[in-house]
Amino acid sequence: MILLDEFVIMPNHIHGIIWMSVGAAPRGRPNRRIDQPQGQDHPIQEPSVIPLGQARGPAPTVFDIVYWFKSMTTTRYRYGVEQSGCQPFQKKLWQRNYYERIIRNDDELNRIRQYIRDNPNNWDQDPENQRL
Protein backbone atom coordinates (compact mmCIF):
# COMPACT_ATOMS: atom_id res chain seq x y z
CA MET A 1 0.00 0.00 0.00
CA ILE A 2 1.14 3.56 -0.70
CA LEU A 3 0.23 6.39 1.66
CA LEU A 4 0.74 10.14 1.45
CA ASP A 5 1.97 11.78 4.68
CA GLU A 6 2.83 15.45 5.17
CA PHE A 7 3.02 17.45 1.92
CA VAL A 8 2.94 21.02 0.64
CA ILE A 9 2.56 22.47 -2.85
CA MET A 10 4.80 25.47 -3.37
CA PRO A 11 4.77 27.90 -6.34
CA ASN A 12 7.57 26.02 -8.12
CA HIS A 13 8.02 22.70 -6.29
CA ILE A 14 6.39 20.11 -4.05
CA HIS A 15 7.54 18.54 -0.79
CA GLY A 16 6.01 15.32 0.45
CA ILE A 17 6.49 12.11 2.38
CA ILE A 18 5.37 8.87 0.77
CA TRP A 19 4.92 5.72 2.88
CA MET A 20 5.40 2.43 1.07
CA SER A 21 4.50 -0.97 2.52
CA VAL A 22 7.40 -2.69 4.22
CA GLY A 23 8.22 -6.02 2.63
CA ALA A 24 6.47 -5.30 -0.67
CA ALA A 25 8.46 -6.47 -3.68
CA PRO A 26 9.36 -3.51 -5.93
CA ARG A 27 9.26 -4.15 -9.66
CA GLY A 28 12.21 -6.27 -10.73
CA ARG A 29 13.58 -6.67 -7.21
CA PRO A 30 13.30 -9.60 -4.81
CA ASN A 31 11.01 -9.41 -1.81
CA ARG A 32 13.04 -8.65 1.34
CA ARG A 33 12.24 -7.65 4.87
CA ILE A 34 13.30 -4.18 6.00
CA ASP A 35 13.82 -4.21 9.76
CA GLN A 36 13.56 -1.30 12.20
CA PRO A 37 16.88 0.62 12.45
CA GLN A 38 19.14 -0.51 15.28
CA GLY A 39 18.74 1.41 18.52
CA GLN A 40 15.03 1.92 17.99
CA ASP A 41 12.99 1.03 21.07
CA HIS A 42 9.72 1.57 19.24
CA PRO A 43 8.51 1.47 15.65
CA ILE A 44 8.11 4.60 13.57
CA GLN A 45 4.69 6.06 14.31
CA GLU A 46 2.49 5.87 11.23
CA PRO A 47 0.57 9.15 10.79
CA SER A 48 -2.98 9.85 9.77
CA VAL A 49 -2.50 9.44 6.05
CA ILE A 50 -4.30 9.60 2.74
CA PRO A 51 -4.30 6.20 1.00
CA LEU A 52 -3.14 6.50 -2.61
CA GLY A 53 -4.03 2.95 -3.52
CA GLN A 54 -3.31 -0.71 -3.09
CA ALA A 55 -0.67 -2.19 -5.36
CA ARG A 56 -1.77 -4.90 -7.76
CA GLY A 57 1.11 -7.12 -8.77
CA PRO A 58 4.64 -5.91 -8.05
CA ALA A 59 4.78 -2.90 -5.75
CA PRO A 60 5.59 0.38 -7.49
CA THR A 61 8.93 2.07 -6.92
CA VAL A 62 9.37 5.74 -6.00
CA PHE A 63 10.21 6.30 -9.66
CA ASP A 64 6.86 4.76 -10.67
CA ILE A 65 4.95 7.00 -8.26
CA VAL A 66 6.71 10.21 -9.34
CA TYR A 67 6.36 9.26 -13.03
CA TRP A 68 2.62 8.62 -12.57
CA PHE A 69 2.16 11.93 -10.70
CA LYS A 70 4.02 13.96 -13.33
CA SER A 71 2.19 12.21 -16.18
CA MET A 72 -1.26 12.66 -14.68
CA THR A 73 -0.77 16.31 -13.73
CA THR A 74 0.73 17.15 -17.14
CA THR A 75 -2.23 15.48 -18.88
CA ARG A 76 -4.71 17.43 -16.73
CA TYR A 77 -2.81 20.67 -17.36
CA ARG A 78 -2.80 20.12 -21.14
CA TYR A 79 -6.52 19.39 -21.00
CA GLY A 80 -7.01 22.68 -19.10
CA VAL A 81 -5.09 24.59 -21.76
CA GLU A 82 -7.03 22.97 -24.62
CA GLN A 83 -10.51 22.87 -23.10
CA SER A 84 -10.69 25.58 -20.43
CA GLY A 85 -8.46 28.32 -21.74
CA CYS A 86 -5.74 27.97 -19.09
CA GLN A 87 -2.60 29.88 -19.93
CA PRO A 88 0.03 27.66 -21.62
CA PHE A 89 3.34 27.19 -19.84
CA GLN A 90 6.28 28.00 -22.09
CA LYS A 91 8.87 25.73 -20.45
CA LYS A 92 8.76 22.17 -19.19
CA LEU A 93 6.10 21.68 -16.56
CA TRP A 94 8.30 19.38 -14.42
CA GLN A 95 12.03 19.14 -13.88
CA ARG A 96 13.69 15.97 -15.14
CA ASN A 97 14.46 14.34 -11.80
CA TYR A 98 13.45 14.39 -8.12
CA TYR A 99 15.08 14.07 -4.71
CA GLU A 100 14.37 11.10 -2.45
CA ARG A 101 15.62 9.87 0.89
CA ILE A 102 14.72 7.03 3.25
CA ILE A 103 13.47 8.25 6.63
CA ARG A 104 14.94 5.95 9.25
CA ASN A 105 13.44 6.96 12.63
CA ASP A 106 10.80 9.06 14.41
CA ASP A 107 13.13 12.03 15.04
CA GLU A 108 14.04 12.29 11.37
CA LEU A 109 10.39 11.85 10.36
CA ASN A 110 9.26 14.64 12.70
CA ARG A 111 12.08 16.99 11.55
CA ILE A 112 11.12 16.48 7.90
CA ARG A 113 7.41 16.93 8.63
CA GLN A 114 8.20 20.23 10.39
CA TYR A 115 10.42 21.34 7.48
CA ILE A 116 7.52 20.69 5.08
CA ARG A 117 5.05 22.58 7.32
CA ASP A 118 7.46 25.56 7.61
CA ASN A 119 8.33 25.70 3.91
CA PRO A 120 5.56 28.15 2.88
CA ASN A 121 6.64 30.59 5.62
CA ASN A 122 10.22 30.53 4.27
CA TRP A 123 9.27 31.13 0.63
CA ASP A 124 10.21 34.83 0.72
CA GLN A 125 13.83 33.86 1.51
CA ASP A 126 14.03 30.98 -1.00
CA PRO A 127 16.62 31.63 -3.76
CA GLU A 128 14.25 29.91 -6.23
CA ASN A 129 11.59 32.55 -5.54
CA GLN A 130 11.66 34.60 -8.73
CA ARG A 131 10.27 37.68 -6.97
CA LEU A 132 13.63 38.17 -5.19
Give a written overview of the molecule.
The protein has one domain. The longest helix is centred in the middle third of the chain and has 23 residues, at 62-84. The chain has helices at 62-84, 106-118, and strands spanning 2-9, 14-20, 50-53. A hairpin with a 4-residue loop joins β1 (2-9) and β2. The protein is 27% helix and 14% strand. Mean pLDDT is 77; it is low at 28-44. It has a 3-stranded antiparallel β-sheet. It is built from 2 helices and 3 strands; from the N terminus they run βββαα. It is α+β, with helices and mostly antiparallel strands and 132 residues long.
Features of the shown structure:
132 residues, 3 strands, 3-stranded antiparallel sheet, alpha+beta, flat
